[in-house]
Amino acid sequence: MSTVQRDELAVVAVGGIVGALARASISYAAPHTDPVAWPWATFVTNLLGCFVLGVVLDWVDNRHSSWLVTNPRRARLARPMLASGVLGGFTTFSTFSVEAVGMARWGDVGGASAYAVSSVVLGVALVALGRVLGSALFGSAPYDLEEDEEL
User: Fold this and answer.
1) Which of 18, 91, 112, 142 lies 20 to 30 Å from 11 when distance is taken between CA atoms?
2) C-alpha distance across the termini of the chain, in Å
C-alpha cells in the first residue's frame, strides 16, 4: 500500500466539495420533509451517482496506461478526484441511512426496508451497468482492485 500524497487528498477534497454542492442543489430543489415519505431526492441522487461512477471508472481506467506516458499526474489523480471526490461527495450513505431509520421509527418499517434494499441492490446494479456502458463507449478497461482501492 502506498502513502497518500497531499495532492491526492487535495483533489479528493475539491472533488468532494463539487459533488456535495451538486447534491445539495438537488436536495433544495426536491426537499424531503415528510419522514415517512419515500426520499426521492436522495434515492435518485445515489442511484445516478452509482451509474455515473461505473461510467467514469471505465473511462478513467481505460485511459490510465496512456496517461501514465503522457500525463502521469492525471493518471494518478483522476480516479481519486472523480470517484472518491466528486461522486463520493455527490452520493450520500449517511443521509440514506438516516432517512431509512426515520421511516422505520415513524412506523413504515416495510417502506424503510424497501428503501434500504432497493438502494443497495439498484446501486450495485447501476455501477455494473455503468461499467458496461463505459466499456461500450470507451473500450474495455482492466480491473486492478488492489491498486484501485488504495485511496
Assistant:
1) 142
2) 9
- Cα–Cα distance between 142 and 120 in angstroms, integer? 25
Chain segment 25-69, per-residue pLDDT in tens: 999 999 988 888 999 999 999 999 999 999 999 999 999 888 989
**Cell numbers placing 136:** 461500450
Contact of 75 with 7, CB cutoff 8 Å? no
Would you say how long the chain is, in residues? 151
Domain boundaries of the chain, sorted by first residue: 6-148
Give which of 23, 33, 31, 38 is closest to 116, Cα–Cα: 38
Task: Report whether 82 contacts 12 (CB < 8 A).
Answer: no
